[in-house]
Amino acid sequence: MPVTTATQRLQTACRVTANGVPRIGLDTCCVQYYISNPPVQPWADCLDPIFQAGVSGQAELYVSTVVISELLAHVHFDHRHNAGYDPELDLMAIMNRHFRILDVDGPVASAAGRLRGNHVPGDKMSLKTPDALIGATSLQHNHTLFVTNDCQLADAFPTGTCIYLRDIALEWLTNHFPSPCFADANPIQVKSRGPGLPVNPSSATLDLGSIQPDPAAKWDRILADAMNVAAAINEPCVFFVLTVKNGRKWETQEVLFWHQAMDTTRPAKKVIRRIHEHLGYSRKTQTVSNPKHAVHGFLATSLSHARHRQTNPTFDSKTDHKKEADAWCEYLDPFRLFSEVLTLPQTTCLLCEDGVAHQLEPPAASTFLDSAAAVLGWKEEP
Hints:
Helix 6 crosses helix 7, helix 9 (165-176) packs antiparallel against helix 15 (362-376) and helix 12 (303-309) crosses helix 13 (320-337). The chain is elongated. The protein has helices at 6-13, 28-35, 43-56, 65-78, 87-98, 106-118, 129-140, 151-156, 165-176, 219-233, 268-279, 303-309, 320-337, 339-342, 362-376; strands at 23-26, 60-64, 100-102, 145-148, 162-164, 202-205, 210-212, 237-246, 249-259, 281-282, 287-288, 293-300, 347-353, 356-359. The strands form 4 sheets. The protein has a 5-stranded parallel beta sheet. A 5-stranded mixed beta sheet has the order 9-8-12-13-14, with helices on both faces. The longest helix is centred in the C-terminal third of the chain and has 18 residues, at 320-337. The chain folds into 2 domains: 6-175, 5'-nuclease (Rossmann fold), CATH 3.40.50; 184-376, no CATH class. The protein is built from 15 helices and 14 strands. By secondary structure, it is an alpha/beta fold.
């Protein structure tokens, strides 16, 4: 039988069947993602089928009074300095228009106690009482589906009755990267003739271990060698080709190389600093002072390889969700660390994946990475 994805389960749950209109319960965060101004991405995109079904009458949407309490706390906190404005009126207008609000009564309280007391991973109660009350409201009213972005609450639900929103978001990543972020659907043509990376290179900078190739080496010829190096290493790595325009010709001045094992001695921040120096880039003005300098970046990484590594027996204790999330983290790690370089002036970045290179569209790639950071829980570098 074909595997049913979380997205497919959600789409199925939003359809009217012989049993009637589906009844969908939502956790606090799911409502907040969607009604925020602007909506919180990519979560709002992932939730869109539910809310569209609710608007069109193809589904009935429900929340617990505990959800109302939590949402009110947020809006009152956000507007605590706005004298004379009552945010409760606007929030309740939205909630009453789109949701059916269910009280926490005796049976719901009992169901919450059972839910919390029986979900004891590691022999400890992990669910908080408000979360248990929200989940129990949905269970007690026999909803078709409950949607949450709380992994503990999702794990506590009976199989098939709940969708963990982050599962849908991981599938969202697959649909939005990499091809939607390419500047051109056609791959870069790699050159095989002419000087490339030298066999016995001389150092350009000792602290970064960068090399000084033949000035006549072109970036697209170096790309061929870089892809061979990446294939041999078989782990995410990054190359930066620093060029200078001399008259009408572009000459290669320096090639920087990075991969994760080098990060202690050659941290990404130092590599980025060198790129800034080459371009004469100012973070304050976001301009460059060296108009005849340019950079080509090759980010070599592979989602298929990252997923394959997660099949190692040492990872058998991981859930499928955790394996997929970790594969995406490994795959996008070069982008996380070097995201600033994507949008630098006079800089072109390429994704080199499974032997094929594509030029990236900076705004699209940056927007995607912002969403990926939310899904994968990246913390900002200090």
